Amino acid sequence: MPRRAVIGVDIGTSSSKGVLVGVDGNVLRSAVREHSVDRPGPGMVEMDGNLWWSEFVAITRELLATADAQVVAVGVSGMGPCVLLTDGDDVPLRPAILYGVDTRSVAQLARLDKELGATNVLERCGSALTTQAAGAKVAWVADNEPEIFAKARRLYMPSSWLVRKLTGDYVLDQHSASQCTPLYDTISRTWYQPWVDLVAPQLELPPLRWAGEAAGSVTAAAAAATGLPVGIPVITGTIDAWAEALSVGAHRVGDLMLMYGTTMFLVHTIPDRLTSPVLWGTVGALPETRNLAGGMATSGAITSWLRELFGSPDYSELLGLARDSGIGARGLLMLPYFAGERSPIMDPQARGMIAGLTLSHGRGDLYRSALEATGFGVRHNIEAMIAAGGDIRRVVAVGGGAQGSLWTQIVSDITGQQQELRTYSIGASYGGALLAAQLVGEADIDLWNPVKEIITPSEDARPVYDHLYSLYRQLYLNSAELTHVLAEWQENQPFTSL
Fold first, then answer.
1. Which of 35, 207, 437, 485 has the highest Cβ tally under 10 A?
2. 164 and 46 in one domain?
3. Is residue 374 assigned to a domain?
4. Is residue 439 part of a domain?
5. In a domain, 454, yes or no
């Protein structure tokens, strides 16, 4: 008799990932499709929305190809907040504009802050207007591509686009909507029509549901394309970082999830609504939950960049060299702002820097400095969360980078925070599968994904890292004016995507 199972698929920045999971939580199969983003100009990061569906189809067919499983529900998630605009027939009008790594909307952020009032936006929307704000990206299209914008009727993100393709339903989860600043009111948890009318009056914004609620069921056409059974339920889904938090049980009050990926994302669950001008105050993925969230524009992206510069050696080799380098990377200090920075400095014109270089430094020192830079960025975000009223009681790590002991150990040493690692660190696709399983029955996260390891900070490392952290903070302040000049110069140069 076929085993009852669920499928979870996540559309990420550098790949789409899918898992076939038994309703008991055991991973039966996994599949990945790698892809790249498009960078058509300075500060611009895009992706073809049609790719999201084609990769979902390919992944699902691979998962089902030889599996003796009866799929009973589908979970979806994706990077975000993204802006995919379509016409009334759901034909994409342009490539999707990605989340805060796309910094094109600086002029729109300034204009909306002036028109609406920055204090008013923070109070109503829970977050200040930053490059993360989906509403500002909509405004950019209106200002810069008016002929395209005039045809726009619907707004999609990766999870809601998959839902539309699978079920025919047009819905969005509450959490994703709360990152559409300034279009959403986090107090009433509804679209805020006066500001919708100002920014995008012709858009038919989707009805809102919670991430784990059913969005609809698989249609005959979607079943034919994917191999999924007709009529099984599909969850509404959410943004990948929130699905990742669910995948490791980091959804209780006091929890902080650290997502080690191409970027670093932090989600702290709080009992009541909090706001901060340097973080995102959002509605949670689950009913009656709230979050403070932060995100670094790069983390794993820097280690990948260094690996390519070094001739693509194995990551294990680089980690070994970084371990040999020792605490402090033999006097190197990196600012990880290679794609600007999101929280807590909210500076799209920040730039990366490696200070202290000498001719004696090698690959291991550079690689170690990148890992330590991520740790310093995490500490900066944690301090901002505590300053905003957060109360961090438990830290749970997830993502590809959490699977190597050195990186997580460095982050614990720098922050002084113990980190919990679960058995499965697969990510958002596993979180989507969990929500799908909960939709059709019982799925206890502590039974699905038990604790595997606890990373404890080293007291010996703390004094050195405290000193380097103070230099890290000082280095940005002392160099910001100069790097802003360089950033402006870069933006005015002919741009060629490498």
1. 437
2. yes
3. yes
4. no
5. no
pLDDT digits (tens, 9 = 90+) for 241-261: 999 999 999 999 999 999 998
Gyration radius (Cα) of the chain, Å: 22
Task: Tell me, rounded to whole angstroms, the distance of Cα 250 from its chain centroid.
Answer: 15
Mean pLDDT, the chain, integer: 95
Going by DSSP bridges, is the β-strand pair 264-270/290-296 parallel, antiparallel, or unpaired?
antiparallel
User: pTM value?
Assistant: 0.89
Q: How many domains does the chain have?
A: 2
Q: What percent of the chain has pLDDT over 90?
A: 90
CATH code at position 283: 3.30.420.40
Q: Which domain holds residue 330?
A: 249-423+459-498
Task: Tell me: do 169 and 300 sit in the same domain.
Answer: no
236 and 368 inside one domain: no
- Output the CA–CA distances (angstroms, integers) from residue 118 to 110, 129, 214, in the order listed: 9, 8, 36
The answer to whether residues 181 and 301 belong to one domain is no
Taking the C-alpha atoms of residue 294 and residue 100, their distance in angstroms, rounded to an integer, is: 11
Q: Is 116's pLDDT higher than 80?
A: yes
Residue-level pLDDT at 496: 55
Q: Tokens representing 116?
A: 């609406």
